[in-house]
Amino acid sequence: MANPVLRSFIKDIPSCLKIRVEQVRHGHHLRGKPPTIALTLQQRLQLLKGPSPTKVNIGFFASKPSFQKKQAWMAERKIKRANMHFEKEIRSGKLPLNLEEARNIWLQTTSPYDIQKIADHYNIFQDLFGNAFFFPVVQLDINYNIDDNDTLVKVYTGNVIKPAEAHKLPNVEYKAQNDTLWTLVMCTPDGNLENSNNEYCHWFLGNIPGNRVEEGEQIMDYLRPIPVRGVGYYRYIFILYKQSQRLDYAEYNRLQPCLQLKERNWNTLEFYRKYQDYLTPAGLAFFQSDWDPTVREFYHSVLDAKEPIFQYDFPKPYIKPQTWFPLRQPFNLYLDRYRDPKEIMKEFLLRKLKTVDPFKEPKAPHKYPNACYIDKRIPSWLRVQIKKERLGWDRVNHLK
Question: What is the DSSP letter of 36?
C-alpha cells in the first residue's frame, strides 16, 4: 500500500527532488550520493592511482614495414584463412611450414614492439630505467652450451633456464657493422643481499668492435646465476648498448675472477645517466632462473660463503592441555599428540624391522585389504589402525 501512495505523491515533484524522495524505502536510507551522481568504481580507482607518468623513449626509432608490404601480408593471410583445409594440411605435413621464414618476417616487422611489451609486462624497464623504455631494434641471439654434445639452451624473453644450464659463458651473436662499438651488460634486479635498490652485475663487456664479442674489453667477468633458495624466479637481463665513441670504463674494472658479491653492486639507471650522451640501448633479451642444488655447491666451494636461505618459520602447533578421559577421540592418536615424534617413529621402525628378513622376500600385501576379516572384539581405535596399516596409510608410509 505504501508504494502506490508514494508514487502518487511524488508524481508532481520536480526530478531534482524526486531522487532524494525515492531513496527512502521501508525506513532504510541509501548511504552516500545517489547512483546518478556518485563516481563509478573505475573512476575512483583512477583517482587513487593518480596520473600515469610520462614514458620516455631512450632508444632508437623502430621502423615499420611499408604499406605495400602490409597489404601483401594481409592479402596472403585472407587467402590462407579462407582455405578450410590449410590448417589440416599443415598439421598433417602435406604442406611445408618454413618456421625460419616466419621468424624472419617477425623480426622485420613487429619484433621490437612485441619484445618491448613483454619486457614491460615483466617490469624490466621500470626496475632498470624508471620511467624510460626502448625498442630492441637489434636482435640478440644468446645461447648456453650445456654439455660437449653441442646441446644449446637459448635465451628468449622470459623463458626459464636453470643455474646448472647457465654456469658457462654464453654465446652472444647480433648483426652490426664492423666500424661500430658496443657495450653488453648482464644484470639482475632481483635478490641483492645488501641493498634492494641495487642490482648485481653478472657480466660487463665494453668497446666491442662490431659483433665480435670475444674481442671486447671484459670489465667484469661472467658470474653464473645464483638465485637464492626460497625466493622464486630471478630475472637475468642482457642489454646491448650502441656506443658513439670509445669509452673508458676503468672505474668499473674489478679483479678477475670477481667472487665478492659486494663488488658486483650495480645500478643500471645511474650507469645510463652517466653515459647517456654516448650510449643508446638497442638490444634486449632476458631469462628467468630459480634455485637448484648447484647453487648451494657454488656458494660453498667457489664463493666460500654460507648459502642464504629464505624460509618461513612455522609456529609449533597448539596442543591443548591433556584431559583425564577424552570423549569421541581415537585413543592412540590422542596419546600420540603428547609423545615425542622421534619416539613414535622409533616404535614404528622397530615394528617394521620385526617383519623384515634380509634373506627372504617381503610378505606380499593383501590383494583386497578391506575384505580381510578383523575380530569385532578388538577396540574400534585398534581396528582403524589395522586397516590403515593394511592400506599403507598414515605413518606406515614413512617406513616403506
Answer: T
